[in-house]
Write a structure and sequence with these properties.
alpha/beta; 2-enoyl-CoA Hydratase, Chain A, domain 1; four-stranded mixed sheet; six-stranded mixed sheet; 10 helices; 10 strands
């Protein structure tokens, strides 16, 4: 089974995550394919729709097996830089990006969802960044900034400091979710219908609005390589990975 499927129908490019048995955890190859699609959509594309196979999750985050290969500061910095490029590609796509979300939306999957222009969801969504409970890593400052803009600082503090998930009511109140659909099929269908609708509107109004919003959000961000290194090269991060694969609770030491 392929890890992702890309289709292009009637001007809508659909990127579908296809690892339901692993809750659509994202491999580096999947990240790269999404970056490539958003940077250079197929000719004639008017919108991109992000969807996922299975009932349990849109995306549970990065495939954790990849972290077993991390041994240096450069590994951590390059990983966060890669995630940053993917998120930037989604945000700066030349056409609108609509995310159809359901179930668990976590880690890298949550970052991708946050970068989309419009987010639709089923009622069972659980949005989170549970790294303080799972792996002991951290978010880049750019992703922190993005979440604060979308959810508000207090929700982001709660989200990251408690490692709890935010459910549908809070996501609606914050404006993070634009529409709620009853099930996965309906949500995907509405995402495609909305993509078709956007393609009937004035292209320059759409493009200048998206660019104007990007400029409003733009600011010089502080350096964060020391923070990334502090987490990714720690004993706790190694312990988090070991605990995940041993299916046990991590024993944090603060080292």
């Amino acid at each position: 089974m392929v890890d992702y499927v890309t289709t292009n129908t009637d001007g809508i490019a659909e990127f579908r995550l296809n690892r339901p048995k692993s809750r659509n955890s994202l491999t580096f190859e999947m990240y790269q394919a999404l970056e490539d699609l958003c940077q250079v959509p197929p000719t004639g594309t008017g919108a991109i729709v992000l969807t996922a196979e299975g009932e349990k999750a849109f995306a549970s985050g990065t495939d954790i097996s990849k972290f077993r290969e991390f041994h240096s500061t450069q590994d951590a910095i390059e990983y966060e830089a890669m995630i940053g490029r993917v998120i930037q590609a989604v945000e700066q796509s030349p056409v609108p990006v609509i995310a159809s979300l359901h179930g668990v939306v976590a880690g890298g999957g949550a970052a991708i969802a946050a970068a989309a222009d419009i987010r639709l969801s089923t009622p069972d969504i659980r949005f989170g960044m549970p790294m303080a409970r799972t792996l002991g890593n951290c978010l880049s400052v750019a992703n922190l900034n993005r979440l604060v803009r979308l959810l508000g600082e207090s929700r982001v503090r709660y989200l990251l400091l408690t490692a709890n998930f935010i459910e549908i009511d809070s996501l609606i109140v914050s404006g993070f979710i634009s529409e709620v659909l009853p099930d996965v099929i309906s949500c995907d269908q509405q995402a495609r219908a909305l993509a078709s609708h956007l393609m009937t509107l004035a292209p320059r109004t759409i493009s200048t609005t998206r660019e104007g919003l990007r400029r409003l959000a733009g600011q010089v961000l502080p350096e964060d390589e020391d923070l990334i290194t502090h987490c990714y090269l720690s004993q706790d991060f190694a312990e988090g990975i070991d605990a995940f694969f041993a299916k046990r609770k991590a024993k944090w030491s603060g080292q």
